[in-house]
Structures are given as structure tokens and as C-alpha cells.
Amino acid sequence: MIRKLVVLLVVVGALIAGDMWLKATAESRVAQAMQKTFDSPGTSKVELGGFPFVLKLISGTIPSAKVTSSSLERDGVMFTDVRMTLEDIEFSVSKIIAGELGSVKVRDGHGSAAIKGNDLVAALGAIGGLEVTLRDGKLLVRAGGKEVSADVTLKNTNLVVRAPGIGRSFEVALPRFVQGLQYRSVRLSGSTVVVEFSLENANFRQL
Questions:
Q1: Fewer Cβ in 10 A, N or C end of the chain?
Q2: What is the CA angle 179-113-119, rounded to 5?
Q3: pTM to 2 decimals?
Q4: Among candidates 147, 137, 63, which has minimal Cα distance to 107?
Q5: d(Cα 189, Cα 32) in Å, to the nearest integer?
Q6: Are 132 and 122 in contact (CB under 8 A)?
Q7: Which residue, 129, 87, 82, is CA-closest to 104?
Q8: 15 DSSP assignment
Q9: pLDDT (tens digit, 9 = 90+) per residue, 50-69?
């Protein structure tokens, strides 16, 4: 009886270990595919949900996943500290193995990303000859020797900067790095602008 129990435990342990190895391999492949799809200069990490994972892999569906990327560039805008939580994911195993994310579809999700102050300033500083700085969670605009605070809001996919102290406002387009992404809010944090977004019926096909 004890021998049978030991054998059973060994078999179960081997199956669990094999499932964990398969999951880790899949996570690595998806992370590599992200690097390729977004031509990201940073590092990406993927955590896939579901157990036993082999059955999820065979079915081509995963209940949840968490994705993080240190940097991701789209249309000349560099996003950093990108974080996404995905739910109800469908995919093609063969395309994932081939390093393609085009088959990945996400029913629901949310996330956030940051834009460093110098990257934002580079975009804003070219508008109307204004001098723009971002420090200590404040956006400052200088024009004609006068420096005033500016407010930052969102309008669809545009970042709207308003400087009422000098009667100026302007917009900068924020690219969507995932189809089905909708920007929801924006805030200033230290020397970065943090945008939060939602995902609905999204996919990772390259835009």
C-alpha cells in the first residue's frame, strides 16, 4: 500500500513538474514574441494563469495573464513600466510557437504605462516654441519669460495640456500599442506621465 502511494506521489509530482515546465516555456515564448512584435528595447515578462496548464494550452484558451514590459515604443512614443492584466484569452498555439502574437485575442483587461518627462517634453516642446518641463509631479510651461503650471487630461487618444495662465492649450496624440485599447485616465507622478487604459475585445496584431 505504501509503495503504491509513493509511486502515485512520484507520478503526480512528475506531472506537476512537467506542467510547470511547459507553462514556463510558454511564458518565455510569449515574452519573446512581444519583444519581436513591438520591437521593444526593454525586457518583457509574462505570467499565464490556469491549471493544469497543458489542458489550457491544448484548448487555446487561458483564463488570465499578466504582462509587464520595461519599455515599449510605438509611433515614436516610448512607454515605460507597461503593465497589463488580461482576462479570457484565446490564441493559436502554432502561431505562438512561431513567435507571432497576431492570433492572441483578449476579451477584457486593463493596465497602465508611463511616459518619461524628457520624452513628453520632446513632443510638447516643439509646439508653438513653448518651453515645457516636468518635475516633482508638476508640468510647467514657459512662454515669453512667464512660467505657469499646466493641467493634463485625456481626450480620446490625445493628451491635452492646458496652461490657463498663458491662455494656451494643445494636444499630442498617444498611439495605441494594442488594438482594442482605450485610454481612461492620466496623472502626473514625479517626472513621468502615467496613463491608465482598458482593453476590450483586443488583440496583439501589430498596428
A1: N
A2: 105
A3: 0.82
A4: 63
A5: 30
A6: no
A7: 87
A8: H
A9: 777 777 777 888 899 898 98
